[in-house]
Write a structure and sequence with these properties.
Strand content: 35-45%
Order of helices and strands: HHEEEEEHEEEEEEEEEEEEEEEEEEEH
Distance between the termini: 72 Å
Number of strands: 24
Oligomer: single chain
CATH topology of the largest domain: Chondroitinase Ac, Chain A, domain 3
Number of domains: 2
Structural class: mainly beta
Helix content: 10-25%
Number of helices: 4
Length: 320
Protein backbone atom coordinates (compact mmCIF):
# COMPACT_ATOMS: atom_id res chain seq x y z
CA UNK A 1 0.00 0.00 0.00
CA UNK A 2 2.83 2.38 0.87
CA UNK A 3 4.51 1.52 -2.39
CA UNK A 4 1.37 2.37 -4.35
CA UNK A 5 1.07 5.75 -2.64
CA UNK A 6 4.69 6.49 -3.47
CA UNK A 7 4.12 5.66 -7.11
CA UNK A 8 1.05 7.88 -7.18
CA UNK A 9 2.95 10.81 -5.68
CA UNK A 10 5.80 10.44 -8.16
CA UNK A 11 3.31 10.40 -11.06
CA UNK A 12 1.40 13.52 -10.08
CA UNK A 13 3.83 16.00 -11.70
CA UNK A 14 3.74 13.97 -14.92
CA UNK A 15 -0.06 13.86 -14.88
CA UNK A 16 -0.18 17.61 -14.37
CA UNK A 17 2.10 18.12 -17.37
CA UNK A 18 -0.11 15.88 -19.50
CA UNK A 19 -3.23 17.80 -18.44
CA UNK A 20 -1.54 21.08 -19.32
CA UNK A 21 -0.46 19.82 -22.73
CA UNK A 22 -3.92 18.41 -23.33
CA UNK A 23 -5.55 21.76 -22.55
CA UNK A 24 -3.12 23.49 -24.93
CA UNK A 25 -4.00 21.04 -27.68
CA UNK A 26 -7.73 21.53 -27.21
CA UNK A 27 -7.34 25.30 -27.55
CA UNK A 28 -5.08 25.11 -30.60
CA UNK A 29 -7.92 26.08 -32.92
CA UNK A 30 -8.04 29.53 -31.30
CA UNK A 31 -5.42 32.24 -31.25
CA UNK A 32 -3.97 33.18 -27.87
CA UNK A 33 -5.52 36.48 -26.79
CA UNK A 34 -4.12 39.12 -24.47
CA UNK A 35 -7.13 40.05 -22.39
CA UNK A 36 -9.38 41.02 -25.33
CA UNK A 37 -12.48 38.85 -24.97
CA UNK A 38 -15.38 38.77 -27.41
CA UNK A 39 -17.27 36.67 -29.90
CA UNK A 40 -17.60 37.62 -33.57
CA UNK A 41 -21.04 36.01 -33.70
CA UNK A 42 -22.33 39.06 -31.84
CA UNK A 43 -21.44 41.18 -34.86
CA UNK A 44 -23.64 39.11 -37.18
CA UNK A 45 -26.65 39.32 -34.87
CA UNK A 46 -26.23 43.10 -34.55
CA UNK A 47 -26.04 43.88 -38.29
CA UNK A 48 -28.72 41.56 -39.69
CA UNK A 49 -32.05 43.20 -40.44
CA UNK A 50 -35.24 41.33 -39.52
CA UNK A 51 -36.56 39.03 -42.24
CA UNK A 52 -39.50 39.98 -44.44
CA UNK A 53 -42.67 38.13 -43.44
CA UNK A 54 -45.87 37.03 -45.23
CA UNK A 55 -48.83 35.50 -43.38
CA UNK A 56 -51.29 33.37 -45.36
CA UNK A 57 -53.50 30.30 -45.21
CA UNK A 58 -51.98 27.04 -46.38
CA UNK A 59 -55.13 26.18 -48.34
CA UNK A 60 -54.74 29.28 -50.52
CA UNK A 61 -50.97 29.65 -50.97
CA UNK A 62 -49.59 33.07 -51.81
CA UNK A 63 -47.66 35.17 -54.32
CA UNK A 64 -45.06 37.64 -53.05
CA UNK A 65 -43.61 40.48 -55.12
CA UNK A 66 -40.51 41.79 -53.37
CA UNK A 67 -38.94 45.25 -53.27
CA UNK A 68 -36.29 44.20 -55.82
CA UNK A 69 -39.05 42.98 -58.19
CA UNK A 70 -38.39 39.31 -57.52
CA UNK A 71 -41.36 36.97 -57.26
CA UNK A 72 -42.10 34.05 -54.92
CA UNK A 73 -45.08 31.80 -55.63
CA UNK A 74 -46.16 29.34 -52.93
CA UNK A 75 -48.72 26.73 -54.08
CA UNK A 76 -51.72 25.51 -52.09
CA UNK A 77 -51.09 22.91 -49.36
CA UNK A 78 -47.33 23.18 -49.75
CA UNK A 79 -46.21 22.46 -46.18
CA UNK A 80 -46.00 19.60 -43.69
CA UNK A 81 -45.40 19.74 -39.96
CA UNK A 82 -42.56 18.10 -38.03
CA UNK A 83 -44.46 14.76 -38.15
CA UNK A 84 -44.75 15.06 -41.95
CA UNK A 85 -48.49 15.67 -41.69
CA UNK A 86 -49.95 17.84 -44.47
CA UNK A 87 -51.11 21.30 -43.36
CA UNK A 88 -54.47 21.71 -45.09
CA UNK A 89 -56.08 24.74 -43.44
CA UNK A 90 -53.42 26.37 -41.26
CA UNK A 91 -52.06 29.87 -40.93
CA UNK A 92 -48.48 30.02 -42.24
CA UNK A 93 -45.72 32.48 -41.38
CA UNK A 94 -43.23 32.63 -44.27
CA UNK A 95 -39.93 34.45 -43.72
CA UNK A 96 -37.91 35.42 -46.75
CA UNK A 97 -34.60 37.15 -47.34
CA UNK A 98 -32.91 38.12 -50.60
CA UNK A 99 -29.22 39.06 -50.62
CA UNK A 100 -27.81 40.88 -53.62
CA UNK A 101 -25.12 43.18 -52.22
CA UNK A 102 -21.62 42.14 -51.13
CA UNK A 103 -22.12 43.87 -47.78
CA UNK A 104 -25.11 41.61 -47.13
CA UNK A 105 -23.02 38.52 -47.91
CA UNK A 106 -20.71 39.68 -45.09
CA UNK A 107 -23.60 40.47 -42.71
CA UNK A 108 -24.97 36.95 -43.12
CA UNK A 109 -21.56 35.27 -43.47
CA UNK A 110 -22.36 33.70 -46.84
CA UNK A 111 -19.08 33.65 -48.82
CA UNK A 112 -19.28 32.61 -52.48
CA UNK A 113 -17.29 29.36 -52.38
CA UNK A 114 -18.18 25.86 -53.61
CA UNK A 115 -15.74 23.10 -52.63
CA UNK A 116 -12.79 25.48 -52.86
CA UNK A 117 -13.84 27.09 -56.16
CA UNK A 118 -14.72 30.78 -56.48
CA UNK A 119 -18.34 31.61 -57.39
CA UNK A 120 -19.93 34.80 -58.69
CA UNK A 121 -23.44 35.26 -57.39
CA UNK A 122 -26.59 36.43 -59.10
CA UNK A 123 -28.50 36.51 -55.83
CA UNK A 124 -29.16 34.55 -52.65
CA UNK A 125 -32.56 33.70 -51.17
CA UNK A 126 -33.70 32.15 -47.89
CA UNK A 127 -37.19 30.84 -47.11
CA UNK A 128 -38.40 29.62 -43.70
CA UNK A 129 -41.93 28.53 -42.73
CA UNK A 130 -43.55 28.20 -39.31
CA UNK A 131 -46.80 28.73 -37.46
CA UNK A 132 -47.68 32.32 -36.67
CA UNK A 133 -46.28 32.16 -33.13
CA UNK A 134 -43.04 30.56 -34.43
CA UNK A 135 -43.30 27.66 -31.98
CA UNK A 136 -43.46 25.06 -34.79
CA UNK A 137 -41.26 24.85 -37.88
CA UNK A 138 -42.66 23.57 -41.16
CA UNK A 139 -41.02 22.07 -44.23
CA UNK A 140 -42.09 21.62 -47.83
CA UNK A 141 -44.24 18.67 -48.71
CA UNK A 142 -42.20 16.09 -50.70
CA UNK A 143 -44.35 16.62 -53.81
CA UNK A 144 -44.34 20.43 -53.67
CA UNK A 145 -41.93 23.19 -54.67
CA UNK A 146 -41.89 26.98 -54.52
CA UNK A 147 -41.44 28.92 -57.76
CA UNK A 148 -38.90 31.73 -57.55
CA UNK A 149 -38.17 34.44 -60.08
CA UNK A 150 -35.05 36.24 -58.85
CA UNK A 151 -34.37 39.60 -60.47
CA UNK A 152 -30.96 40.45 -61.96
CA UNK A 153 -30.29 43.47 -64.16
CA UNK A 154 -27.60 41.54 -66.06
CA UNK A 155 -28.61 37.87 -66.03
CA UNK A 156 -26.02 35.24 -66.94
CA UNK A 157 -27.18 32.29 -69.05
CA UNK A 158 -24.62 30.01 -67.37
CA UNK A 159 -25.95 30.43 -63.82
CA UNK A 160 -26.45 27.30 -61.69
CA UNK A 161 -28.35 26.60 -58.49
CA UNK A 162 -26.55 25.93 -55.20
CA UNK A 163 -27.88 24.97 -51.77
CA UNK A 164 -26.15 26.22 -48.62
CA UNK A 165 -24.22 23.82 -46.38
CA UNK A 166 -23.18 24.94 -42.90
CA UNK A 167 -22.26 21.48 -41.59
CA UNK A 168 -18.55 22.37 -41.41
CA UNK A 169 -16.61 25.33 -40.02
CA UNK A 170 -16.41 26.95 -43.48
CA UNK A 171 -19.71 27.76 -45.18
CA UNK A 172 -20.05 26.01 -48.54
CA UNK A 173 -22.43 26.10 -51.49
CA UNK A 174 -23.29 22.64 -52.83
CA UNK A 175 -24.16 22.39 -56.53
CA UNK A 176 -27.81 21.38 -56.90
CA UNK A 177 -28.78 22.06 -60.50
CA UNK A 178 -26.60 22.92 -63.48
CA UNK A 179 -29.27 24.76 -65.40
CA UNK A 180 -31.24 27.86 -64.42
CA UNK A 181 -33.44 29.52 -66.99
CA UNK A 182 -33.23 33.26 -67.52
CA UNK A 183 -36.67 34.79 -67.76
CA UNK A 184 -38.69 37.93 -68.22
CA UNK A 185 -41.81 38.53 -66.13
CA UNK A 186 -44.20 41.32 -65.33
CA UNK A 187 -44.43 43.10 -62.00
CA UNK A 188 -48.10 43.68 -61.19
CA UNK A 189 -47.45 46.49 -58.72
CA UNK A 190 -45.35 48.71 -61.01
CA UNK A 191 -46.43 47.33 -64.41
CA UNK A 192 -42.86 46.83 -65.59
CA UNK A 193 -40.92 44.00 -67.17
CA UNK A 194 -38.31 42.31 -64.98
CA UNK A 195 -35.39 40.09 -66.04
CA UNK A 196 -33.64 37.47 -63.96
CA UNK A 197 -33.67 33.78 -63.10
CA UNK A 198 -36.55 31.30 -62.92
CA UNK A 199 -36.19 28.18 -60.74
CA UNK A 200 -37.93 25.88 -58.26
CA UNK A 201 -37.05 25.46 -54.57
CA UNK A 202 -37.85 22.04 -53.10
CA UNK A 203 -36.31 22.80 -49.70
CA UNK A 204 -36.59 25.69 -47.25
CA UNK A 205 -32.98 26.75 -46.92
CA UNK A 206 -30.38 29.15 -48.30
CA UNK A 207 -30.26 28.99 -52.11
CA UNK A 208 -27.76 30.77 -54.35
CA UNK A 209 -27.70 31.46 -58.10
CA UNK A 210 -24.04 31.31 -59.11
CA UNK A 211 -21.58 30.77 -61.89
CA UNK A 212 -18.08 29.36 -61.41
CA UNK A 213 -15.31 31.89 -62.01
CA UNK A 214 -13.22 29.20 -63.77
CA UNK A 215 -9.83 30.74 -63.00
CA UNK A 216 -6.90 28.93 -64.60
CA UNK A 217 -4.71 27.09 -62.09
CA UNK A 218 -1.59 29.10 -63.00
CA UNK A 219 -3.52 32.34 -62.38
CA UNK A 220 -4.49 31.48 -58.80
CA UNK A 221 -2.65 32.49 -55.65
CA UNK A 222 -3.05 32.59 -51.89
CA UNK A 223 -3.36 35.38 -49.35
CA UNK A 224 -2.62 35.66 -45.63
CA UNK A 225 -3.43 38.64 -43.41
CA UNK A 226 -1.86 39.45 -40.06
CA UNK A 227 -3.54 41.63 -37.43
CA UNK A 228 -2.40 42.96 -34.04
CA UNK A 229 -2.38 40.35 -31.29
CA UNK A 230 -5.77 41.10 -29.72
CA UNK A 231 -7.60 40.27 -32.96
CA UNK A 232 -8.14 36.50 -33.08
CA UNK A 233 -10.33 34.05 -34.96
CA UNK A 234 -12.58 33.98 -31.89
CA UNK A 235 -13.52 37.67 -31.98
CA UNK A 236 -12.66 38.58 -35.58
CA UNK A 237 -13.75 37.57 -39.09
CA UNK A 238 -11.96 38.50 -42.32
CA UNK A 239 -13.35 38.72 -45.82
CA UNK A 240 -11.96 39.45 -49.27
CA UNK A 241 -14.41 41.49 -51.37
CA UNK A 242 -13.85 41.60 -55.13
CA UNK A 243 -14.24 44.89 -56.96
CA UNK A 244 -15.17 43.54 -60.40
CA UNK A 245 -16.83 40.26 -59.39
CA UNK A 246 -19.95 39.63 -57.35
CA UNK A 247 -17.85 37.52 -55.00
CA UNK A 248 -16.91 37.48 -51.32
CA UNK A 249 -14.43 35.05 -49.74
CA UNK A 250 -13.89 34.48 -46.02
CA UNK A 251 -10.38 33.91 -44.66
CA UNK A 252 -9.82 31.14 -42.11
CA UNK A 253 -7.86 31.62 -38.91
CA UNK A 254 -4.57 29.72 -39.00
CA UNK A 255 -3.55 28.99 -35.36
CA UNK A 256 0.01 28.05 -36.33
CA UNK A 257 0.70 31.28 -38.22
CA UNK A 258 -1.73 33.34 -36.11
CA UNK A 259 -2.94 34.83 -39.38
CA UNK A 260 -6.07 34.68 -41.50
CA UNK A 261 -5.49 32.84 -44.77
CA UNK A 262 -7.27 31.60 -47.87
CA UNK A 263 -7.28 27.83 -47.32
CA UNK A 264 -7.89 27.06 -50.99
CA UNK A 265 -5.16 29.17 -52.64
CA UNK A 266 -7.73 30.21 -55.26
CA UNK A 267 -7.37 34.00 -55.43
CA UNK A 268 -7.23 35.29 -59.03
CA UNK A 269 -3.95 37.11 -59.68
CA UNK A 270 -4.47 40.67 -60.86
CA UNK A 271 -7.90 41.20 -59.27
CA UNK A 272 -8.48 44.31 -57.16
CA UNK A 273 -10.00 43.48 -53.78
CA UNK A 274 -10.84 45.02 -50.42
CA UNK A 275 -9.68 43.10 -47.35
CA UNK A 276 -12.29 43.56 -44.61
CA UNK A 277 -12.03 42.71 -40.91
CA UNK A 278 -14.84 42.91 -38.35
CA UNK A 279 -14.21 42.43 -34.63
CA UNK A 280 -16.66 42.16 -31.75
CA UNK A 281 -15.24 42.65 -28.26
CA UNK A 282 -17.12 42.63 -24.97
CA UNK A 283 -19.47 45.46 -23.93
CA UNK A 284 -20.48 46.29 -27.50
CA UNK A 285 -17.04 47.40 -28.65
CA UNK A 286 -16.39 46.97 -32.40
CA UNK A 287 -13.33 47.30 -34.59
CA UNK A 288 -13.24 47.46 -38.37
CA UNK A 289 -10.36 47.21 -40.83
CA UNK A 290 -10.24 47.75 -44.59
CA UNK A 291 -7.38 47.64 -47.07
CA UNK A 292 -7.42 47.82 -50.87
CA UNK A 293 -4.91 45.62 -52.70
CA UNK A 294 -4.28 44.14 -56.13
CA UNK A 295 -3.68 40.41 -55.81
CA UNK A 296 -0.22 39.20 -56.75
CA UNK A 297 1.68 35.99 -56.03
CA UNK A 298 1.42 34.78 -52.40
CA UNK A 299 0.06 37.96 -50.84
CA UNK A 300 1.16 38.77 -47.28
CA UNK A 301 -0.78 41.70 -45.83
CA UNK A 302 -1.02 43.51 -42.50
CA UNK A 303 -4.27 45.12 -41.36
CA UNK A 304 -4.67 47.62 -38.52
CA UNK A 305 -8.36 47.75 -37.48
CA UNK A 306 -9.85 50.91 -35.97
CA UNK A 307 -12.61 51.26 -33.42
CA UNK A 308 -15.97 51.92 -35.08
CA UNK A 309 -19.61 52.03 -34.08
CA UNK A 310 -21.94 49.43 -35.54
CA UNK A 311 -23.64 52.23 -37.46
CA UNK A 312 -20.34 53.27 -39.06
CA UNK A 313 -19.59 49.67 -40.03
CA UNK A 314 -23.01 49.30 -41.62
CA UNK A 315 -22.48 52.46 -43.67
CA UNK A 316 -19.17 51.11 -45.02
CA UNK A 317 -20.69 47.69 -45.84
CA UNK A 318 -23.40 49.46 -47.83
CA UNK A 319 -20.74 50.89 -50.16
CA UNK A 320 -19.13 47.57 -51.15
Amino acid sequence: MVLKKGILKSCLPFVAILMFLSSCYQDSSEFVTTGADGEVGTFYSDVQDPANVRLFNSELGTVIETEDFSRIEVPSKAFVDEDQQLLVDEDIRLEYRILKEKGDLIRFNKPTISDGALLETGGVILLKASNVSRTLNYSLSPNKSISVQLSDLNPNDEMMLFYGDDSSSSYNWDLYSEGIQTAVWGNATDSIEVVGYDFEMDSLTWVNCDVFSNIAQNEQTGICVELPEIFTNVNTALFVVFKERRSVVSLSGNPDLEQFCDPYQMMPIGDEVDIISVTSLDNGVYYFGMKNVVLSSNNQEFLEPERKTIEEINEILNTL
